[in-house]
Each structure stands twice: as structure tokens, then as C-alpha cells.
Amino acid sequence: MLPFPRLNYEAPGTLDEAARLAAEPGAKILSGGTDLLPSLKHGLFRPSVLVSTRRLEALYQQSPRQLGAGLSLRDVSRVSWVNAEYPALAAACRTVATPTIQGMATLGGNLALDTRCVYYNQPEGWRVALGGCLKCEGTICHVAPRGSGCYAAHSADTVPALWLYGAQVRVHGPGGERSIDVSAMCQSDGRVPPLAPGEIIAGVRLPARPPAVVHRKLRLRAAIDYAQLLVAVSRDDDGYRAVISAVGPRPVAVAGRNVPELVDAAHAAVQPLATHLSAVTWRKKMVRVEVSRAAAALPA
Ligand SMILES: Cc1cc2nc3c(=O)[nH]c(=O)nc-3n(C[C@H](O)[C@H](O)[C@H](O)COP(=O)(O)OP(=O)(O)OC[C@H]3O[C@@H](n4cnc5c(N)ncnc54)[C@H](O)[C@@H]3O)c2cc1C
Ligand code: SF4
Given a cut of 90, is residue 146 above it in pLDDT? Predict the structure, then answer.
């Protein structure tokens, strides 16, 4: 059993107070804790203070086309207007981890989920035995030893579908509120999300008249596992679009006038990196398969 470090903990009752506390150097925001708490046990972060969102009532509200960031993925997957108008978002919530984790994990935490790597998301002793890596404690990348950057994979299940729906993320910070397009939440250098100190994801706004979107997740086991590929495909009057994630720090977006063009574009654009969980060649082949399957599942 890994010990839990001693930490300062605050649970403010207003967004302004939360933003003030979260702006302190070394502060970390805590929502469901399903990702952050294991990371703390692994010694990946040593926050000066944990700022909990659990008393921020504004984060637990929902109304048509507005979802609070504190809603659990299970709650989001059960909202009737989400199922009717944004079914790929409901489907994506249901593919995260397990039903128990979906009941604790929040939408905001999913949007802010750090990139993942088998060499990084490990207990401290494991990492240190390997000499660490560029993302933490070390000087080389074990995935791409000749590279100079980190290629840990963006792995948040809800992002590809939200991206194609054109969702906006509402962020509250010391300077007030602003909106960020979901597609701008993921940086190619692996910073997820691009928030300034003290900024808290308050909610998600979905546009009216969304395109038809289908979400698919390829994983090695039917539950608990993170994705080997996350695929969302949409169709509107201009043609088809796909967002493919879990292959690098930033999801890959492609478009095509028809399905064969989309599938070819996706296959050409996605270059999965080596992990010891699955062969690169297999994942590359599965891009074609998963994008084709998602396109075939779009409503007629
Ligand atoms: C066994 C297991 C399997 C998992 N499988 C998957 C999976 O398949 N797919 C997947 O997407 N995730 C998976 N997860 C990760 C996690 O459960 C989800 O991503 C979840 O949605 C994270 O939400 P949370 O509320 O628990 O976030 P937390 O753990 O509380 O926080 C995660 C990160 O987001 C930041 N954060 C949280 N809330 C906010 C906010 N409102 N504003 C700004 N920053 C914030 C935190 O500071 C932290 O950096 C898995 C976790 C476990 C333990
Ligand atoms: S991709 Fe490389 S630098 Fe990034 S976490 Fe993995 S091993 Fe570390």
C-alpha cells in the first residue's frame, strides 16, 4: 500500500475564493480525485495546498446545453438532453474506467486530465529505478530516446466527442470568466489544459443543432483500461470529420468529403508511439478500422 502524503486542504464555498486559493504557488485543484489522488501517492506532485471543488455549488448545476464541471461522468451520462442531443458525450462518459469511478470522476477533471505514459504514471521507486524521464526527475524520454520532448498521450475519453460537438469550456479565474474551445484545451507539448494559475474549469457549454457524432474506444480490456485509441467521427453538410486521441499529447483532427477520404486522412495523420502495451503497427491499422466503424454507426 502506498502511503498518502500529508497535505494542506481547503474546500472554499465560492468560485472567487477557490480561484484565489488555486492561484497560490504549487496549489492543485481537487475534484473527484480519481486521477489526482493516485498521482499524489505516486509522488508525481507535491502540492502546497489542495483546493477542493466539492462545496462549489455552481459546478454541480446543469440546464439545457450547460453542464457544470463538478457533475460526475455518471450524472452526465444520465442527463436526458445529453442522451437526446449529444449521445456521443454520454457514450464517452460510460467508457471511462468503471461504473464506480464514473460515479466519482467529474467532467472538469476529465477535461483537465494530465497526459499519460507507462514510464511516468508509476510509483516513485519504479520511476527512480529507471532514472526518471523528461516529464519528471530525468533527462531522457524512454518512448523516444532521441527526442527532446514528452510524448505522453492525451487520454481523456470525453474530449474527442466534445471537440466535434464544438463545446466551449467555461473557465473561472482571478481575472473573471472566459471560454476556451475544447480543441484548444490540449497542447502539442502535452500541457493539459492551458489554464493560468488560479483558473478553474467551471463548466461546458454545448452549441445548439450539433452534428451527428459517434464515439468509439479501443482498449485491451472491456473495463478499467485507458484507451489504445479514442475515436469520434461526425457528419454535417460539409462532410465528415474525425478526432483521434490516445496517440500523442494532442488529439489529431482530420476531415474528408466522404468516408474513404476520411479513413485515409486519419490513417495518414495518426502516428502512434511505441509503448509496451500494444504494437505500433496494430494500433496504426486499427485507426482505419475504428474510424470506419464509427462512420458506419452514424445515423442515416
Ligand atoms: C483505474 C482508473 C482508470 C481510469 N480510466 C480512465 C479512462 O479510461 N478514461 C479517462 O478519460 N480517464 C480515466 N481515468 C482517470 C479519471 O478517472 C478521469 O479522467 C476523471 O474524469 C478525472 O476526474 P476527477 O474529477 O476524478 O479529477 P481529479 O483526479 O480530481 O483531477 C484530475 C486533474 O484535473 C484537475 N482538475 C480537476 N477538476 C478541475 C477543475 N474543475 N478545473 C481545473 N482543473 C481541475 C486536477 O488538478 C488534476 O490535475 C481512470 C482512473 C482510474 C483510477
Ligand atoms: S513520453 Fe517520454 S518524457 Fe513523456 S512521460 Fe513518457 S517517457 Fe517520460
Answer: no
